Amino acid sequence: MLDRGARSLRRTGTARPDRAPEAGKRTGWARHAVPMTSVLMCRPEHFTVSYRINPWMRPEQATDTRLALAQWETLHAVYRDLGFDVRLVDPLPGYPDMVYAANGGTVIDGTALTARFRHTERAAEGPAYGAWFRAAGFAVHEARHVNEGEGDLLLVGDTVYAGTGFRTDPRAHAEAAEVFGREVVSLQLVDPRYYHLDTAFAVLDPAGGPGAVAYLPGAFDDASQEVLRFRFPDAVVVSDDDAAVLGLNCFSDGRTVVHAPQAEKFAADLAERGFGTVGVDTSELRRGGGGIKCATLELRS
């Protein structure tokens, strides 16, 4: 039987800043055993929206750094209580988007492919994350082509699904295949609101399988939609409304999906499939075009 706190979390589906879910209370939701999840995060101490490099960003509208910090702290606490190994990289003054750690690189089998950003406003983030990878003992490959880390390179089973169309250069897909020795499947993004793959495609079960992902069909061109239907016939197909609150920008350890609480239908679909769900509001970070997954870089040893 789940304890009272776990029953409450399952009922509400949302974590409050003063009450994160308790670790080790997920047995009622477990799909299968998973290894410890290790992630890298960056505190949004300098978060603001002072320029516009995606449709979500509106510099003319005020942002609340304290609220962004509070929401980030809740996400951090949820990860710790889920038993994750959470590591931190120091934020750089003047780089408000550094909170979106997923863009800082891609780490698979102990090797880090550094990010190379398309926009000059974020250029210094790549070297900063690269330095962290080296200090942490990862083998580091300096990117030759523009890629924006796990924003566009997502691992499902043994295959990397790679987005392009707005940020990552398609030549970086071949580079990732070379660096990681994995099959890389290219997916073409066509809706500027979903400029990174991780805003339109979510990995629910990192081990892979037919129902391992969720996605928004309209974010992809026809050929990519055909690839997704063929490879993931049992995928969760997400509505426009749930995608528009960055519901697909979620993070899963294979048992529990941490997601935007505003994506209510998506959360219900996940629960029907046996996933635990925890809603964490990152609406202030969404002003910069990112959410839960953007704030989370998985470190795979």
UniProtKB/TrEMBL annotation:
GO molecular function: dimethylargininase activity
Keywords: Hydrolase
Domain of life, per lineage: Bacteria
Parts of the chain that traverse the membrane: none
EC class name: hydrolase
E.C. numbers: 3.5.3.18
SUPFAM superfamilies tied to this protein: Pentein
Basic and acidic residues: compositionally biased ranges: 16-25
InterPro entries linked to this entry: DDAH-like (IPR033199)
Annotated stretches, region: Disordered: 1-27
PANTHER family, per the entry: DIMETHYLARGININASE (PTHR12737:SF9), DIMETHYLARGININE DIMETHYLAMINOHYDROLASE (PTHR12737)
Similarity-based family: Belongs to the DDAH family.
Record-given protein name: Dimethylargininase
Species name: Pseudonocardia alni subsp. carboxydivorans
Gene symbol of the encoding locus: ddaH
